[in-house]
Design brief:
By secondary structure, this protein is α/β, with parallel strands linked by helices. 41% of the residues lie in helices and 21% in strands. The protein has 16 helices and 16 strands. Strands 1-2-3-4-5-6-7-8 form an eight-stranded parallel beta barrel, surrounded by nine helices. A three-stranded antiparallel sheet has the order 11-12-13. α7 packs across α8. The protein starts with 9 loop residues before the first strand and ends with a helix. Bound molecules: 3-methyl-2-oxobutanoic acid (KIV) and zinc ion (ZN). 3-methyl-2-oxobutanoic acid binds next to β5.
Length: 507
């Protein structure tokens, strides 16, 4: 399982196993197969598909993934018992990952085994896997809290029993890069078999520790998309891979341009959203607001971007806000075909800053609205999608139902949906159409303000996202909350489509 090229680091993805152990995450069979296909396209060397012994459903998932004909090796996790290993073998996987605790605390309290029993189980399980002709990766669980002498003894026994790879888990994330380097160097004095690393993020060190292990000679890294995993998660695959490529100049099999779409897919299917400031895949990772930054990146991206956003499948975003500079706002407006004079631009920038000072988020819609006020003309926004018709029924004994007619490029499309309320029903119906026609989905919905009495104005702010991960915000204010939602949604969809067509034309 090692590589002949010493600059090649294997990527072992455990999103579907450790990642699924994220509290609150439970993936269906279809979700898991969809993610496995994406991981294989992404180019990871191995996919840990699950723990077949844990349930019949899990066994079925691992079996299905193993027979999906993917390029990545498919791995199943098993404790060091015959029953667990039999369940893994029955799934027809390429690789069995077997583990047993080696730290005093886990041997005594988690599994109730003596060190001698742990040694025996290690040898027996690896020999059993190898007897069945499968590759075997072995993990001394909680390696980083194990007594070094015993850990080395277990690793030597594992190597002798035929393990193809020994994985060192920092199960509760207590290492720092220096101690990790020392530990891997120690283990490497005891065995020749390739070493892998598996880090948890309890102190926010999982990525740094994984990289330190590679510095010390680890040939493989375990990681998960978006850093999902038990408790605080595992090392984030996107961060490990990009650091290996860009900082360390190592190679992996990963097609980095698919990292963002993979992150989006995993966030959607697991329901665990990615924080805005998350490295590489967070919404703000390539967004610039302050004047000096926007001026810098529009002149020379290298000023404030360590890598091109396209390398991870993203685009740069310039944000209007109180820190925004003239050049950034000008670039944002030019992006949608608006060309104010120098004087007008100065005024627009001032108004954006005033809004920001009042603590207001400046959406794309706000920028257009205040630009149109400054330029003294109604900026007729191009419309690709328009509302043809809308009917909503709701009541005490009626399931809220909406039917919507949209006009896209002059053609009419109709869809109906039910929802928990009229707004939900109508937004679902619109999304049903736009998902089929343009792959645009609602990412965020906020009812911003309702003022006054029963005829109050409802202000709806939404964010929509296209399949490439471009996010645009839009807003609408109406006395009718359903109409405000529909208008905001259609504005957002139009912005997304216009932006995409402009980007398409630039190519
Ligand atoms: O964190 C851990 O120790 C694990 C093992 C199963 C390798 O996930
Ligand atoms: Zn783990």
């Amino acid at each position: 399982m090692g590589s002949k090229d010493s600059r090649y680091i294997r990527v072992f993805d455990t999103t579907l196993r450790d990642g699924e152990q994220t509290p609150g995450v439970s993936l269906t069979l279809d979700d898991k197969i969809e993610i496995a296909r994406q991981l294989s396209l992404l180019g990871v060397d191995a996919i840990e598909a699950g723990s077949p012994m844990s349930s019949e459903g899990e066994k079925k998932v691992v079996k299905e993934i193993a027979k999906a004909g993917l390029d990545s090796e498919i791995c199943a996790l098993a404790r060091t018992t015959r029953a667990d290993i039999d369940a893994a073998i029955e799934c027809d996987v390429d690789l069995v990952h077997t583990f047993v605790p080696t730290s005093p605390v886990q041997m005594k309290y988690a599994v109730g085994l003596s060190p001698e029993q742990v040694l025996a189980a290690t040898v027996d399980s690896i020999e059993y896997v190898k007897k069945h002709g499968l590759k075997c990766e072995f993990s001394p669980m909680d390696a980083t809290r194990s007594e070094l002498k015993f850990l080395k003894q277990v690793c030597q026994a594992a190597e002798k029993a035929g393990a193809d790879m020994i994985n060192i888990p920092d199960t509760v994330g207590i290492m720092i890069p220096r101690t990790m380097r020392q530990l891997i160097e120690e283990v490497k004095t005891a065995v020749k078999v390739p070493i892998s690393i598996h880090c948890h993020d309890d102190f926010g060190m999982a990525v740094a520790n994984s990289l330190a292990a590679v510095e010390a000679g680890a040939a493989q890294v375990h990681a998960t998309i978006n850093g999902l995993g038990e408790r605080a998660g595992n090392a984030a695959l996107e961060e490990v891979v990009m650091a290996l490529h860009m900082i360390y100049k190592f190679k992996t099999g990963v097609n980095t341009r698919l990292l963002y779409s993979t992150s989006r897919m995993v966030a959607t299917l697991t329901g665990i959203s990615v924080q805005a400031n998350k490295a590489l895949v967070g919404e703000n990772a390539f967004a610039h607001e302050s004047g000096i930054h926007t001026r810098g990146v529009t002149a020379k991206p290298l000023t404030f971007e360590p890598i091109k956003p396209e390398l991870v499948g993203r685009t740069r975003k310039l944000v209007a806000g109180k820190l925004a500079g003239t050049r950034g706002i000008k670039a944002e407006l030019e992006d949608v075909g608006i060309h104010p004079t120098e004087e007008q631009l100065k005024e627009i920038v001032q108004r954006v800053k005033d809004l920001g000072d009042k603590g207001k988020m400046v959406t794309d819609a706000d920028l257009i609205a205040l630009t149109s006020a400054v330029m003294g003309e109604v900026i007729q926004e191009e419309k690709i999608v328009d509302l043809g018709d809308l009917a909503v029924i709701t009541g005490i004994k009626v399931i809220p139902t909406a039917s919507v007619k949209l006009i896209l490029d002059g053609k009419e499309y109709i869809a109906a949906e039910t929802g928990v309320g009229p707004v939900d029903a109508v937004l679902k119906a619109i999304q049903k159409l736009t998902h089929n026609l343009a792959k645009i989905r609602l990412k965020e919905y906020r009812l911003e303000a309702i003022t006054g009495g029963s005829n109050a104005v409802a202000e709806v702010v939404i964010k929509v996202e296209d399949e490439k991960g471009h996010i645009v915000s839009a807003r609408a204010a109406r006395e009718d909350i359903v109409m405000a939602s529909v208008e905001a949604m259609i504005n957002g969809i139009n912005k997304c489509l216009i932006k995409n067509r402009k980007l398409g034309n630039k190519k």
